[in-house]
Amino acid sequence: MADGTLHDGLHVSRHEIGALYEAALEGRFQPAVLDLVAARIPGAAALLYRQDSTQPAACGILHRGLGGLAMPAFPASLAANNPLFREHRRRPVGAVFSDTALMARSSFRATAFFRDWLAQGGDFDAATGVVIAREGPVQTVLEIRYPTHAERQAAPAAEMVLGELVLHLAQAARIADLTLGAGQAQIEARNFLELSSFPTFIVDAACRIHAMNGRGEVLLRVGTGLVLGMDRTLQAVEPEDTAHLQDAVAQASLSVSARSAVMGLKSGARKAPRVLTLTPLSALSRTDLPCGGGCAQQGRVAIMVIDGADQLRLGRDALWAMFDLTAREAELALALLEGRTLPELARAQAVSKQTLRNQLSSILRKTGTTRQSELVALLLQMARALPL
Question: What is the full DSSP assignment across 204-240?
Answer without folding.
Answer: -TT-BEEEE-HHHHHHHHHTSSEEE-TTSBEEESSHH
